[in-house]
Design a protein that fits this description.
Elements: E1 5-10, H1 15-26, E2 30-35, H2 45-50, H3 66-69, H4 80-89, E3 98-101, E4 104-107, H5 111-117, H6 133-141
């Protein structure tokens, strides 16, 4: 596959986003990186909505977001419009990364899907690059 210019919306400091960017860069793709938390989503809610395509609304959410973990937001109980409004107000709720290549937008980093879309095969691993490793560690360490 040819090299792509990937517009990559991340949470700065996120370990998985760092690994995802390394994987894309190693595959020869050019990254244009944005801070997901600083984007003016309120001015362009339709653009935010376009990253989710036909995914179920509950899958739009970052399950590690404090508001979700604390039960303040139930991703299974909101409409698409409510979800976008919540995400505009609290960008940490947005599942990441958001990626855009040539007007095609996706949410999340399923390695098989990204490989089929952009090409990663020689570099992909079985490592989970979506679940926050801090979250997984915290869950494993609970009594």
């Amino acid at each position: 596959m040819a090299m792509a210019t990937v517009h990559f919306y991340e949470k700065p400091g996120c370990l998985n986003n760092t690994r995802q960017k390394q994987l894309l860069s190693s595959a020869g793709h050019l990254l244009v990186v944005y801070d997901l938390l600083q984007q003016p989503w309120g001015k362009e809610p339709a653009k935010l909505r376009s990253f989710f395509g036909d995914m179920p609304v509950a899958d739009w959410f970052n399950r590690s977001a404090p508001a979700v973990k604390q039960g303040l937001v139930d991703p299974n109980a909101v409409s698409a419009d409510e979800a976008i409004a919540l995400m505009v107000a609290q960008p940490l709720l947005i599942r990441r990364p958001l990626m855009e290549v040539n007007e095609q937008r996706v949410c999340g980093f399923d390695q098989q899907q990204v490989d089929a879309w952009l090409g990663l095969a020689a570099l992909a691993s079985n490592k989970d690059l979506e679940t926050c490793p801090k979250q997984a560690h915290a869950e494993a360490c609970k009594p």
